[in-house]
């Protein structure tokens, strides 16, 4: 049916779309509950064969960084952690206010962050 005015739309509302419910979280409750996402989110960004704990990864990255901008690629090479692990640590440190990410894929320790 051609629509020319708002009255045409009001007089002939479109059909309601059919809602398809996902069974992904059917038994787990809310999507943000721990049981609902337990199998979807890895527990640690570190590789399973790594003996390092997340705190040790923080220390490794912070020991390498200084106030001058450093490329994230250099941090990955120096720390001997997987790229996802380094990126997770960089994100955690940035959210904690310890480092800043800069343009060009560089990171630096913030001057006012605790050592």
Describe the protein in words.
This protein has 115 residues and is mainly α. It has a domain at 44-109: Arc Repressor Mutant, subunit A (Orthogonal Bundle). It is built from 5 helices and 3 strands; from the N terminus they run αααβααββ. It has helices at residues 6-11, 34-37, 54-64, 72-79, 83-95, and strands at residues 70-71, 99-102, 106-109. A hairpin with a 3-residue loop joins β2 and β3. α3 crosses α5. The longest helix is centred in the C-terminal third of the chain and has 13 residues, at 83-95. The protein starts with 5 loop residues before the first helix and ends in a 6-residue tail after the last strand.
Could you give the count of β-strands? 3
Cα shape: elongated
Strand order of the largest sheet: 1-3-2
The largest sheet, given as strand count, sense and whether it forms a barrel, is: 3 strands, antiparallel
Decide which structural class fits the backbone: mainly alpha
Show unreliable segments. 31-42, 45-52
CATH topology of the domain at 44-109: Arc Repressor Mutant, subunit A
Distance between the termini: 69 Å
- Structural Rg: 24 Å
Helical run tally: 5
CATH uppermost class of the domain at 44-109: Mainly Alpha
Q: What integer is the average pLDDT?
A: 74
Helix content range of the residues, please? 25-40%
Order of helices and strands: HHHEHHEE
Tell me which CATH architecture of the domain at 44-109 applies here. Orthogonal Bundle
CATH homologous superfamily caption of the domain at 44-109: Winged helix-like DNA-binding domain superfamily/Winged helix DNA-binding domain
Strand content: 5-15%
């Amino acid at each position: 049916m051609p629509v020319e005015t708002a009255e045409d739309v009001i007089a002939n509302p479109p059909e309601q779309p059919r809602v398809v419910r996902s069974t992904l979280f059917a038994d787990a409750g809310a999507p943000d509950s721990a049981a609902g996402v337990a199998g979807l989110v890895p527990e640690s960004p570190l590789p399973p064969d790594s003996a390092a704990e997340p705190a040790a990864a923080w220390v490794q990255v912070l020991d390498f960084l200084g106030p001058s901008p450093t490329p994230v690629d250099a941090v990955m090479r120096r720390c001997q952690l997987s790229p996802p692990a380094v990126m997770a640590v960089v994100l955690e440190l940035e959210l904690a206010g310890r480092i800043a990410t800069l343009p060009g894929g560089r990171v630096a320790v913030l001057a006012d962050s605790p050592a």
